[in-house]
Amino acid sequence: MRKSLIIIAFYSNVLFAQSGWNQIGTMSDNVNTIFFTDSLTGWIGGYTNLPGNNGVIRKTTDGGFSWTQQMFPDSNSIFKIKFLNSSTGFAVGGNGLILKTTNGGTDWIKKNSPTSSGIGSVFFLDNQNGWACGTQTIIKTTDQGENWTLLTTDSTVIAITDISFGSLTSGWCVGLYGKHIKTTDGGSSWIPTSFPSSDRSWYGIQYLSPSIAVAVGGGKIARTTNAGESWDIVWVQSGDQLNSVSFANSEIGWAVGSSKILKTTNGGVSWGAQQWGPYHYLSEVHCSDSLHAWAISSVGVFYKTTNGGVTSVENTLNGNDPTLLSLFQNYPNPFNPTTAINFLIPEREFVSLKIYDLLGKEIETLVNEEMKIGNYTAKWDATNLPSGMYFYRLTSGTFSETKKMILMK
């Protein structure tokens, strides 16, 4: 049996005890994009793992717990999905693919595309005006996606990763290897520009107002308050990569990437890490409002929060007092063969965490040491044990709490 202990960091003076993010399922598809119009209705896009790797679009009406495949007249992979409302939406993808639906995806209609390059992102400022970008390419529509025109094939940008506009005239594209461009005339012309940390790749950008925008990329988050004339670095983590950013309103938003879910409540001025797990490399995040958000990994693992990612210590979810030592339910449960056990230490003290079988026999000691203040995750590997019910007990001083878990092979 193998065991490991991970210290989950906390920031400011807030201790995070139990995650407001939960894994809600996995999918065999390779998932590139996710979009929700409300707390229940959403779509994902990507490609299947079946022979041919054909593109796939799936829809959920229960918040992401179950998905139904939607058919469309093409086989290219889907890179990005964007809906204007519950009925009208767009999907873009490989080889210049542009799809439009006006009935929630029951029917997807292929639109004429002015490019054969892959289209990686699409953005609409309003119901009529939209832009899309991809491999050295930017295109535009002014009639709700019925027709698209080619704006540029900029060879100075190896790969444009995302696009966003703050007004009909002012917009930005971010891209790989520090190559970024901006427009002040609605996209008719684009200017290569110096971006903060221009040696880094940037993967996501979103305007919150005509003047305020937030961009995420290789270990950094940047923010502008003057429509991109200047940018400030507001978050730095060497070695991390952030892939996506999504705001519910002008104040609340999330960014995700390599083992990170970050949240802001002040329009991107400051960011704090939210607890989640088990950890995967997250490729995209989308929120439908300030409480409901979803994060995906490219291998089809889904995470969801229904309370803004708030943890039980701030709260309310199960009435835990942040000044008390706390033990939480393992996740996943049932499990096979590994599971994670979270516990909160509010002050330096000697702690033990032990595993028992159904007869009360001690199986293993995961923790038996003095520990500092923090939120901890102990991982337990039951590879060599039979299926059945097991118990884990956290003890410190006069405190003792036991919970059960089920190993199902």
What would your notes on this structure say?
The chain has 409 residues and is mainly β. It folds into two domains: 20-310, Methylamine Dehydrogenase, Chain H (7 Propeller), CATH 2.130.10.10; 326-407, Immunoglobulin-like. Helix content is 0%, strand content 48%. It has no helices and 36 strands. It has strands at 3-8, 22-26, 30-36, 42-47, 55-60, 68-70, 78-83, 89-93, 98-101, 109-110, 119-124, 130-134, 137-141, 149-152, 160-165, 171-175, 180-183, 191-193, 202-207, 213-217, 220-224, 232-236, 242-247, 253-257, 260-264, 272-273, 282-287, 293-297, 301-305, 326-327, 338-345, 349-356, 362-371, 374-381, 388-396, 399-407. The strands form nine sheets. A four-stranded antiparallel beta sheet has the order 1-34-31-30, with no helix packed on it. A four-stranded antiparallel beta sheet has the order 2-29-28-27, with no helix packed on it. A hairpin with a 7-residue loop joins strand 25 and strand 26 (272-273). It starts with a strand and ends with a strand. Residues 1-19 and 312-323 have low confidence and may be disordered.
The total of beta strands comes to: 36
| Beta-strand content estimate | over 45%
Mean pLDDT over the full residue set: 85
What structural class do the secondary elements suggest?
mainly beta
Q: Helix coverage percent of residues?
A: under 10%
So, CATH architecture of the largest domain? Answer: 7 Propeller
CATH superfamily of the largest domain: YVTN repeat-like/Quinoprotein amine dehydrogenase
Question: Whole-number radius of gyration?
Answer: 23 Å
Q: Please mark out the parts with pLDDT under 50 across 5 or more consecutive residues, or reply none.
A: 1-19, 312-323
Please tally the helical runs, counting DSSP H or I stretches of 4 or more residues: 0
Broad shape: globular
Termini separation (Å)? 15 Å
Q: How many strands, what sense, and barrel or not for the largest sheet?
A: 4 strands, antiparallel
**CATH fold annotation of the largest domain:** Methylamine Dehydrogenase, Chain H
Number of spatially distinct domains: 2
